[in-house]
Amino acid sequence: MKAVVQYRYGNVESLALKDIEAPVPADGEVLVRVHASSVNARDWHLMRGDPYLARLALPEAFGLRRPKRTIRGSDLAGRVEAVGRSVTRFQPGDEVFGDARELDGAFAEYVCVPEGQLAPKPANLTFEQAATVPIAGATALVGLHHTARVQPGQRVLVNGASGGVGTFAVQIGKALGAAVTGVCSTRNVDLVGSLGADHVVDYTRADFARAPDRYDVVFDLVANRSLADLRRVLAPGGTLILSGGGVSGARPHLVGPMGLVITSQLMARFVKERVLVLNNVPPRAETLAALRELIESGQVTPVVDRTYKLAEVPAAVHYLQVEHARAKVAITI
Known about the structure:
The protein has 333 residues and is α/β, with parallel strands linked by helices. The chain contains 10 helices and 15 strands.
């Protein structure tokens, strides 16, 4: 099969399309013929081994000197090709979507996935649309519903509302009955408004941290503000959720967004607000099923900025990493 592989840490020039052996499903695994994948910030962090601290703190994902796994890509949508022993939920021909991070990556024609990391594909989505959902959609759903426990009528601020997770968070916040404010740049104001945001803050023209508005939940997805700024806009007893973020530079960072995470964890026990960290959310079958229900009911629709071919994965990763992609970037395989 063809796959995008990486044998050393680096920028997009370290990625190469190669012919390698197709995997064989083990007990409890499903072999999926991948029709589409999508790019996440996780992919360029793993590609670069960035930040350096993550190589020590997250050994299940990173290798110390080189990538632990050679194929990039996590999100996938495709058809079941074969199933391993003890698999009961799927059979060959089923259309599925899910997350391949536990084994080899999804920038490949075939990938083996644990049964519990897959769900039936939403019937109203293309493979490309479905492939943009797992990680970003699960992060938004787990953050707002399971972690912050957003209730109807609450006020939610999404910092990074035009990004991959942010576009899902705005829609899921509205589906939960919240009044949602999205923070984004000028070129994305119309996009965020079209997703249902009640208010949109253009950060090039206004500073939400200096405004008088207060929020029950602040969902920070970009790690570009201090903890003091984020806490300042919380209502009494509010919840701050930190998830991902970090700006790509020419070289990997030592700490990167993990600095904000570490500081928040140390501070959490001394402040009245709930300060929670949400990273590396695995899209389990039950989470994927809940996302499928929201999508098939019309409450959530994936937003695809651009679509690339498998051979163009380096260009797709560069676009997400450097050029500030809007929403999701899909890969057709």
